[in-house]
């Protein structure tokens, strides 16, 4: 891992600074048939909790991990030490909580993320991805807003 790093189609992509190379690589990845499907059905409850179901289906019979992460956008921090001391940092896609399910073929489970004081449910999304824990290869990924009352 290094910064900045771009991962495309599950692989390190070092030519990301070339707009043409990046566009061509994205088209190539998008033209491939996905090796798995992932579905998420989240809903936000009145107390700010986010619950739902997640599932994945693949012909790959390896032992896989289906990861569900709750992310939040719009987080602002002001470090008081280090190279960013005094700066205002704005961050998106910050992981707030995670659940994992393991299996082969079809994997499904329910998740419940309880709110914490520094959460802003209006700025949250639920992300799910299916990966091979031995290689780190991601077979499929999906993100959706954490909707209120299933709306």
Note poorly predicted spans.
Answer: none
Q: Using the alpha-carbon principal axes, give the shape.
A: globular
The amount of beta strand, in percent, is over 45%
Do you know the CATH architecture of the largest domain?
Sandwich
Layout of strands and helices, then pairs:
Layout: E1 7-8, E2 11-12, H1 19-31, E3 36-44, E4 50-58, E5 64-72, E6 75-77, E7 89-91, E8 94-103, E9 106-113, E10 124-131, E11 138-145
Antiparallel strand pairs: 1-2, 3-4, 4-9, 5-8, 5-10, 6-7, 10-11
What does this structure look like?
With 151 residues, this protein is mostly beta strands. The protein has two domains: 1-32, no CATH class; 34-145, Immunoglobulin-like (Sandwich), CATH 2.60.40.10. 9% of the residues lie in helices and 47% in strands. The protein is built from one helix and eleven strands. The strands form four sheets. It has a four-stranded antiparallel β-sheet, with no helix packed on it. A three-stranded antiparallel β-sheet has the order 3-4-9, with no helix packed on it. A hairpin with a 6-residue loop joins strand 10 (124-131) and strand 11 (138-145).
């Amino acid at each position: 891992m290094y910064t900045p790093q771009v991962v495309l189609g599950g692989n390190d992509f070092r030519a990301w600074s070339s707009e043409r190379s990046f566009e061509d690589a994205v088209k190539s990845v998008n033209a491939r048939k996905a090796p798995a499907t992932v579905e998420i059905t989240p809903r936000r409850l009145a107390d700010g909790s986010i619950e739902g179901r997640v599932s994945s289906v693949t012909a790959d019979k390896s032992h896989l991990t289906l990861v569900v992460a709750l992310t939040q956008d719009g987080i602002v921090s002001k470090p008081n030490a280090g190279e960013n001391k005094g700066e205002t940092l704005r961050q998106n896609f910050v992981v707030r909580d995670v659940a994992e399910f393991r299996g082969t073929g079809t994997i499904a489970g329910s998740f419940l993320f309880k709110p914490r004081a520094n959460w802003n449910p209006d700025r949250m999304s639920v992300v799910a991805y299916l990966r091979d824990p031995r290689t780190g290869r991601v077979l499929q990924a999906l993100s959706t807003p954490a909707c209120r009352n299933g709306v």
